[in-house]
Automatic annotation (TrEMBL):
<comment type="function">
    <text>May be involved in both secretory and endocytic intracellular trafficking in the endosomal/prevacuolar compartments.</text>
</comment>
<dbReference type="GO" id="GO:0005783">
    <property type="term" value="C:endoplasmic reticulum"/>
</dbReference>
<dbReference type="InterPro" id="IPR004895">
    <property type="entry name" value="Prenylated_rab_accept_PRA1"/>
</dbReference>
<dbReference type="Pfam" id="PF03208">
    <property type="entry name" value="PRA1"/>
</dbReference>
<dbReference type="GO" id="GO:0005794">
    <property type="term" value="C:Golgi apparatus"/>
</dbReference>
<keyword id="KW-0472">Membrane</keyword>
<feature type="transmembrane region" description="Helical">
    <location>
        <begin position="186"/>
        <end position="212"/>
    </location>
</feature>
<feature type="transmembrane region" description="Helical">
    <location>
        <begin position="130"/>
        <end position="157"/>
    </location>
</feature>
<keyword id="KW-1133">Transmembrane helix</keyword>
<protein>
    <recommendedName>
        <fullName>PRA1 family protein</fullName>
    </recommendedName>
</protein>
<keyword id="KW-0812">Transmembrane</keyword>
<comment type="similarity">
    <text>Belongs to the PRA1 family.</text>
</comment>
<dbReference type="GO" id="GO:0016020">
    <property type="term" value="C:membrane"/>
</dbReference>
<dbReference type="GO" id="GO:0016192">
    <property type="term" value="P:vesicle-mediated transport"/>
</dbReference>
<keyword id="KW-0813">Transport</keyword>
Length: 244
């Protein structure tokens, strides 16, 4: 006996359902662990399971761990990051960003790792940006020559601005101003390269990326309040299939 399809049934794709949970602030539901079976069922499975099941379980766990690790390393954490995420208020560093010790765990599978990383990067975008600035400042402190080159580069542009304002190059000699801008750009690039500023940037970016990946993948998702820039219409994500 066959049943005809219900024309009023909702057909929601996984991506649309995930977006809806994100907009309503309940995306943490997908990050919750599955409910374990009753103790009696677990005991019966343990009695009937063969001895080789232990070795198979260890191999499966190791394989899942490796797949999750590869997924974290190959994932683009900025895939869903938008400009509106930086306009939201900065989450609390102690309660929201760091949180208690039980709010950290290794993701169970690559899907959970992807879900955590993409959502945490959006939620704590301002925190990660502040940490990146701090790491760059620390790298400049450890490399005084790079800091000196950065100050000299800023000094070149400040000198150019002073000359343009005092000599009125914008009005009298606009072509001369363009020539001076090109010379200033070349001089700044040479000074920054000779002062090894690129090493400071590489160190800061590497440490920032490592901290971002570790925190975003280990940090469990928590329910968040809806914000104005995250609200979307439910009609855009949940669509009724056309009736035949």
């Amino acid at each position: 006996m066959s049943f005809s399809a219900n024309p009023f049934a909702l057909s929601v794709p996984d991506s649309a359902f995930e977006d809806w949970l994100q907009d309503t602030g309940y995306l943490s539901i997908l990050d919750s662990p599955a409910v374990p079976p009753p103790s009696s069922a677990r005991q019966s499975k343990q009695i009937t399971a063969p001895t080789i099941a232990g070795t198979t379980t260890i191999f499966a766990s190791a394989l899942c761990f490796f797949r999750t690790l590869v997924s974290i390393l190959t994932l683009n954490p900025l895939a869903k990051l938008a400009a509106d995420d930086f306009s939201a208020p900065t989450p609390s560093w102690t309660n929201a960003f760091i949180g208690p010790a039980y709010s950290y765990s290794w993701p169970l599978d690559p899907a959970q790792a992807r879900l955590r990383v993409l959502e945490n990067v959006r939620r704590y975008a301002r925190n990660y940006s502040a940490l990146a600035i701090v790491f760059f400042a620390c790298s400049l402190y450890q490399m005084p020559i790079s800091l000196l080159g950065l100050i000299l580069g800023l000094g070149f542009w400040e000198l150019l601005r002073f000359c343009c304002d005092s000599l009125e190059l914008e009005r009298r000699h606009p072509q001369m101003k363009q020539v001076l801008i090109r010379f200033t750009q070349i001089a700044t690039a040479i000074v920054l390269y000779l002062c090894n500023i690129q090493m400071s940037l590489i160190c800061a970016i590497s440490i920032s990326y490592l901290v971002l990946i570790l925190h975003a993948s280990f940090r469990k998702l928590t329910p968040s309040k809806q914000s104005n820039h995250q609200k979307r219409s439910l009609i855009k994500t949940l669509r009724l299939p056309a009736a035949k």
